[in-house]
Write a structure and sequence with these properties.
Layout (H helix, E strand, L loop, with lengths): L1 H20 L17 E9 L4 E10 H13 L3 H10 L9 H15 L16 E22 L1 H7 L9 E18 L4 E14 L2 E7 L3 E21 L1
Antiparallel strand pairs: 1-2, 1-6, 2-4, 3-4, 3-7, 4-5, 5-7, 6-7
């Protein structure tokens, strides 16, 4: 049994390294003679303490996107990921992890969730993750995501000229062929590695980065984080 676990963990490690260093394919470009001049779009979604989602589209070169992807994947903490996003001019300079954490508690209050819930009492062992009031970092490949809130209704309203309302979020779901979800708090650190898997976040505050070719990253704080799938859960 121990041998099987080591074999699976090694296989996951190799897959993850392959995905990290695999550049975005040139098939996305019409003219491959000078890919540095070709632009692709990425979407940055800011999740606020009021439950609003502010979406922004950025046009970057292939090299800029690959550099951003590798720097984010190489950053082990939310603080470092925020620095990377600032260096690329994708989020405001005044954003920091402490502000996001305070926004998470405000979000919990708005949702009527008690801040005194013990993260340890809420833990579930097995390859299932359930955490409260944690830093959260989600990386999914071959991914899709869903916002549960009033996004569809607000998009219809925004069809009216001169009206531009931000979308409102309650619960977020992200799933894919391969994913790594990491949560951390004063009590414990947990990593859920799934292939495939799914993660849900209630009261998420932070940023979602949507890359070309179905890769998504969430970095921020979540009132409730739930994940499951086929794979491993590592507690450290």
């Amino acid at each position: 049994m121990l041998y099987n676990k080591k074999f699976v963990a090694f296989g996951v490690f190799i897959i993850f390294l392959t995905l990290i260093f695999t550049p975005i394919t040139n098939a996305s470009f019409k003219d491959q003679s000078d890919p540095e001049e070709d632009l692709l779009q990425i979407e940055i979604s800011e999740y606020t303490s009021d439950g609003l989602i502010v979406d922004k589209i950025f046009s970057l070169t292939k090299k800029e996107i690959n550099d951003l992807k590798n720097e984010l994947l190489g950053s082990k903490t939310i603080e470092k990921q925020l620095i990377v996003l600032k260096e690329h001019g994708l989020i405001p300079e005044n954003v920091d992890a402490t502000d996001l954490e305070n926004s998470m508690y405000k979000r919990a209050s708005n949702l009527g969730i008690n801040r005194e819930i013990s993260p340890e009492k809420a833990s579930i062992r097995l390859p299932i993750l359930l955490k409260f009031f944690n830093k959260v970092n989600v990386i999914y490949f071959g991914a899709g995501s869903l916002n549960i809130g009033f996004k569809f209704i607000i998009r219809i309203i925004n069809l009216i000229p001169f009206i531009k309302l931000p979308t409102f979020d309650i619960f977020d779901v992200c799933g894919g062929l391969f994913g790594v979800t990491t949560t951390s708090s004063r009590f414990s650190n947990n990593t859920l590695i799934t292939f495939p898997g799914i993660v849900g976040m209630l009261g998420f505050v932070g940023y979602r980065i949507k890359f070309p070719l179905l890769m998504q990253i969430y970095t921020g704080f979540s009132v409730v984080t739930f994940g499951l799938g086929l794979g491993l859960r590592i507690k450290g």
